[in-house]
């Protein structure tokens, strides 16, 4: 993910006891269904307006929600196999040996195995040609046992990312990055075959925690094709008023302080301070950054784009890093793969 650099002014930390919104546990019927199956839904907390100083803070548990979705997908995969003897198949192409990319691929493979989805991995050397990568893409396009194709990004700089993503069959583009799917996402009244997994996971978390989006002010930090731009389109589709902050934005903290919903995807560790956040806002932290920490087991630890320790004193809810958006990204990939298999085989 490309990182953003800002020049910002400082301001005092907002008083931690001020809350505009609070989450109250209750049982409810989910407002969103994943395209995999109508039974995959969840709603564990609801948001309400409150000025009470003891209004509670909620940690949005992506790990728990991701497991719930994966468990539902496992049931559907078993039902599909028993009914028509078809198991959804996902092919992942990894070029190079980036540690973070290799880790993501391992996690995806593990998740597929847990859900009963067939996983095929192709690991190519860093210096692979575009023709070599395209050969595998085209092979999986024509393979009837493969229902989803994912090319792990970023690719080495000598490869043309646009050409490679464009070569994927849009009907198998479970990562949602084919130009056709991205274009349809940006158009009102149109529906892409697939939505990119991380943005889809962000919106799914908001729904599962019953966060009202319609009419709310949403601010997205970052405008990458992977997260920032697609999540902004999804929020607009939910009738939020959306502002995107990028590297040329002046005084971004003044804009973020107006956000009811703040999604941070800038790739800058702890960039968003508590003073950037509106009291009672809901914060989705997409950032995954490694920083040095002599007290950590390996001398490094993972943090998000949001300073969690400060944000939790101001926001009404926030995703942790790790354990927030990451597990939901993988769950959405499984969801998209199952959806593709169902469409191809016309299975209800």
How does this model look, in words?
By secondary structure, this protein is α/β, with parallel strands linked by helices. The protein has 10 helices and 13 strands. The chain has helices at residues 62-84, 99-115, 130-141, 161-167, 179-186, 197-208, 228-237, 252-256, 308-311, 325-344; strands at 21-25, 45-49, 58-59, 89-95, 118-124, 148-151, 217-221, 241-245, 261-264, 282-285, 289-292, 300-303, 317-318.
Secondary structure layout:
Elements lengths: L20 E5 L19 E5 L8 E2 L2 H23 L4 E7 L3 H17 L2 E7 L5 H12 L6 E4 L9 H7 L11 H8 L10 H12 L8 E5 L6 H10 L3 E5 L6 H5 L4 E4 L17 E4 L3 E4 L7 E4 L4 H4 L5 E2 L6 H20 L4
Radius of gyration: 20 Å
N-to-C CA distance: 36 Å
- Which structural class is indicated by helix and strand composition? alpha/beta
**What fraction of residues sit in β-strands?**
15-25%
- Following the backbone from N to C, one meets helices and strands in this order, namely EEEHEHEHEHHHEHEHEEEEHEH
Biggest beta sheet attributes? 6 strands, parallel
Largest sheet: spatial strand order: 3-13-10-9-7-8
Low-confidence stretches: 7-32, 35-54
Q: What is the number of helical segments per DSSP (H or I, 4+ residues)?
A: 10
The average pLDDT value, as a whole number, equals 87
Shape: globular
Helix content: 25-40%
What is the number of beta strands? 13
